[in-house]
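Response to reviewer comment R2.3. The reviewers asked that we include at least one raw input/output pair. We reproduce the pair for SGNH/GDSL hydrolase family protein here without editing.
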Amino acid sequence: MPLRQLRRAVLALALTLGAVLVGVGVPAAAHAATAVNYVALGDSYSSGVGGGSYDLSTCLRSANSYPKLWVASHAVNSFSFPACGGAVTSDVINNQVSALTGSTTLVTITIGGNDAGFADVVSSCRFGSDSACATAVNGARAFATGTLPGRLDQTYAAIRSHAPNARLIVLGYPRLFETGYCGLLAMSTYKRTILNQAADVLAGVIADRAAAAGATFSDARPYFAGHGVCASSPWIKDVTGVIEAYHPNATGYRYGYLPTLDAVTG
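Raw output as returned:
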């Protein structure tokens, strides 16, 4: 074959291969850069209670919440934020999952604490006796191990049903307290210890049911370690406000919860 014809043949082959790569290779490239359609579900720990800079809704969604912070630092095609302070599992099922669609690619959630009576338990411990605190904590632990697993299963199943193509990331709750000396007006070391132990039980239940649902569990406890109430640099609020008490502050969401989510999203 003359050199000129050979060059033309090589050029034609290159163009053909290029067309094939464009036709076949684009989906792989597109998959690598799939648009993120993110929906943040859950309770006050997802809506950002304690973080300040709230919107005007009754759900106390904060500009300093971990979903907002994550969106600000990642390329996101769409973002929906139905997480609501005070939410329990039934609220997610009945109200929040409607934000999900077949095009949703990422779902995050914190849920279960309110089902287990988070606010009442902490209130009993903050203002009641050691025995009253122990009774409240034991009741919450029994609920967490006996009733909550079924509620979590229903919640994760509802999410899967509404967003079958999404990755579901379940974030846990931090331990609320450091157990060293904390002044005369603080909860006793005993109360703080059994509340932290209850948080560990809750984390174990949530992690177990998330795994059973094929979800990714990310544990917030290591990231908040050393920054609970009574720390020299606390990331959890004490009784500084009726609604915000025992929730992360803005620093806690940025340096506790955002790394918790980043650890499993990259």
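Residues 3-32 form the longest helix (30 residues). The domain at 35-265 is CATH 3.40.50.1110 (Rossmann fold). Further pairs are available on request from the corresponding author.
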